[in-house]
Amino acid sequence: MKADPAGVLTGAHYLDGDFACGEGAMAAGCRFTAGYPITPSTEVVERIARRFPTMGGLFIQMEDEMASMAAIVGASWTGTKTLTVTSGPGFSLMMENIGLAVMMETPCVVVNVQRGGPSTGLPTMTGQADMMQARWGSHGDYEIIALSPQSPQEAFDLMIDAFNLAELYRVPVLFMMDECVGHMTEKVVIPPAEEIEIVPRTLTSVPPGEYWPYHVNGKYVPEFARAGDGYRFHTTGLTHDERGYPDMSAECQEKCVHRLLEKIKNNADKIVRFDEEQTDGADVVVVSYGITARVARMGVDLARKKGLKVGIIRLIVVWPFPEKRIRELAGNIKAFVVPEINYGQMVLEVERCAAGQASAICVPHGGGGVHDPNDICEAIVRAAK
Amino acid sequence: MTTVTQQTEMVAEEHPIAPYLRMDRIPHIWCPTCGIGTAVKCFATALEETGVDLDKTAVVSGIGCTGRVAGYMKLDAFHTTHGRAIPFATGLKLGRPELLVIVFSGDGDLAGIGGNHFIHAARRNIDLLIIMVNNFIYGMTGGQNAPTTPLTARSSTMPFGNFERPFNLPHLAASCGATYVARWTSLHIRRLTKSFKEGIERKGFRFIEVIAPCSTLYARLNKLGTGFNLMRFYHDNAEICHGADTRDLGIDFQNKLICGKFVDEERPTFLESMHEHYNKILGDRYVPIPPEGGMIHG
Ligand SMILES: Cc1ncc(C[n+]2csc(CCOP(=O)(O)OP(=O)(O)O)c2C)c(N)n1
Ligand code: SF4
Ligand SMILES: [Mg+2]
Question: Which of residues 269 through 288 in chain B touch A, CB cutoff 8 A?
Fold first, then answer.
């Protein structure tokens, strides 16, 4: 369906990434946001807090990030689209209830405007060191969806995709921004509502009495009933059967968790998204995401000026990871070069998929700034040898 | 070979609260003479006697023996994470304001790990009925010390007796702004049911503490006899004092228990305050979240 015009601020704006992200959420139909202030993410909720009261939305500043996450999971069970926003320290606190959202199959979106860590780290400065936490941070086995925008425009555009993916797969979607993108101001064009395609919360057509919350009927994603419509369903963070009833058996665990993994894994081709450029005949392919993708492009331009054949893969959806494409490319190139503002996280995934066919070279940066494009160029030059 | 058992006069009378329970999940996991059961019975009776729209009633529990209540109630029922029942319920209530949302959980869950949410939800006057079964212990995990364990009482992590001062929960709730505060024991069947009914009918942050025996752990660790002995003891040592000063409601080990209704007043709820405020400031521009939820229908 088309976006609700009430949430769409159509026009050309000059916005920072945080504001654009908030606008994206509202355009996507988000009408409940709970959050706790933390730099460099707070502007997202400040934007929303200001605009929600005129569009039927409700923002509440909770007492901490555990409460914020729990509240958006609860609110999502009313059919309302929900969002919370944080940065590293708060992201850590959200992990348990992100797991609850995974287990209960609750659509919601969590924004992490990354800063330097560990701990309080660099509150006002950039980082990309929560990428593995996004994938593995909550306990137990699960699959997750995460996106990473490279500009304020993308912060808007991808936010709509994030909400749509959350609905399609009934999973929390993690929006992995970074402080640079969050705080950079650029032109953001917000299209008219009728040009924005959104996936609404689809309610089950099975009548109460015949409905079981996790009955999938051979599909991957169960049909949704919301609280207050007479279904009187039960849902739990415990391992559960199709009725949503706890079942503490290895068999039920296998069935329950397996589907949670498969619904993402077996749809990965549809979810995975990346930009690819000049990889045909390339010797080196640079893999990057977020703000680093823009810096890496400068490094690639420098290397190309030296006559090197360099391709680019820019991750847009970071989880699930584009395994297939990296595997294919690995057979044709010498090396992947992976700059990221951490000491080597997504490069591990590249290395795993390359499986020894091509090397995977990390270009680390500890955070607090972005790479010097010359360092990326040098890494490309070395990799091409 | 098939055996046919002839049961000519099988008694098919349903338990009066069966319609409120998920009978397909019975037998439940609770120990014999655990006090949680009577609290559930009173709650179901209160649902019946108030005649609330069960389709618009949701129950949220955290984790623990009491946390299993949500799993047995035939309502929209959410068994969440340890300590987070109140913020989860806050989301449910604010996401669909027409719902009646009840939190049913344990003392460790709501006052220990979830204590911060408890005081803030009371402060904001979120429209929630909080039913807390206080058995003075962490039952589910095997009898560890709780923030409610009375001084000198034994727990598995205070094997020489507890030396930490426990919470006086009605006082905590009242001082944070709860609109309704009551305490009963799990054997005050009629009074507890009446209190639940009032709790269901009132608005704002309503807190009802149910003093209940944990027969398997608290009773045993403290050599207090069976769960039934302890239930009787609590009942018989209850001193009913409506409107008591909440400062006087602390609980000593195996001593008198002051029960009653301590607070029953009206104060604008979070949503009412929000509507009033935005109506005043924004006028016609204010669009409240719809009672049936901020959902965009397909
Ligand atoms: C985050 C987290 N920490 C610890 C636990 C283990 N745990 C489960 S129930 C419980 C205590 C419950 O005590 P209470 O709320 O008093 O419930 P009761 O069993 O006494 O009814 C604990 C500590 C958990 N499930 N999650
Ligand atoms: S362990 Fe204690 S609280 Fe838990 S069911 Fe048994 S008696 Fe009740
Ligand atoms: Mg307890």
Answer: 274, 278, 282, 285-288
Nearest CA to ligand 2 atom 6: B31
- Our separate counts of H helices and E strands in chain A read 13, 16
What is the rounded CA–CA span in Å between residue A233 and residue B70? 10
DSSP characters for A285-309?
EEEEEHHHHHHHHHHHHHHHHTT--
CB-side neighbour CA atoms (13 Å) of B243:
1
Kindly list the distances between the CA atom of residue A377 and the CA atoms of A300, A373, B153, B172, in Å, as whole numbers in the listed order: 6, 6, 68, 62
How many Å lie between the centroid of ligand 1 and the Cα of residue B137? 10
Domain spanning B21-285, CATH class: alpha beta
Domain ranges of chain A: 5-195, 275-384
In whole angstroms, give the CA distance from residue B235 to residue B186. 8
**Residue ranges with strand state E in B127-214:** 128-134, 180-185, 205-211
Task: State the smallest CA–CA distance between residue B117 and chain A in angstroms.
Answer: 7
Ligand 1 atom with the smallest distance to the CA of B82 is 26
C-alpha dist (Å) from residue B153 to A77, A85, B158, B164, B214:
41, 43, 8, 10, 13
Cα of A128 to nearest chain B Cα, Å: 29
- A88, containing H or E segment: helix A88-104
* Residue pointed to by tokens 């680019």: A312
Residues B186, B238: contact at Cβ < 8 Å?
Answer: no
Regarding the beta carbon of B214 and ligand 2, being less than 6 Å apart is answered yes
- Cβ of A228 and B71 within 8 Å? no
* CATH class, range A275-384: alpha beta
pLDDT along chain B (298 residues), means of 10: 52 87 96 97 98 98 98 98 98 98 98 98 98 98 98 98 98 98 98 98 98 98 96 97 98 97 98 98 97 73
Distance B176 CA to ligand 1 centre (A): 24
Whether the ipTM is more than 0.95: the answer is yes
Same fold? A5-195, A275-384 = yes
The alpha carbon of A70 and the centre of ligand 1 are apart by a number of angstroms equal to 17
Can you read off the two tokens belonging to residue A133? 């936490």
Q: Omega before A172 cis (within 30°)?
A: no
Cα separation, A174 vs A152, in Å, equals 17
Please report residues of B whose CB lies closer than 8 A to that of A201: 295-296, 298
pLDDT digits (tens, 9 = 90+) for A14-44: 999 999 999 999 999 999 999 999 999 999 9
Annotated domain spans of chain B: 21-285
Q: Compute the distance between CA of residue A153 and CA of residue B107 in angstroms, rounded to an integer.
A: 48
CB burial of B15-31 (b: ≥16 within 10 Å; e: otherwise) equals: eebeebbbeebeebebb
B170, B249 in Cβ contact below 8 A?
A: yes
Note whether A366 and A152 are within 8 A (CB).
no
Judge whether A162 and A151 are in contact, CB under 8 Å: no
What pTM does this model have? Answer: 0.97
Q: Is B36 in the pocket of ligand 2 (CB under 6 A)?
A: yes
Q: Which of A149, A136, A144, A142 is nearest to A176 (CA)?
A: A149
CATH match of A5-195 with 3.40.50.970: yes
CB A26 within 8 A of CB A58: no
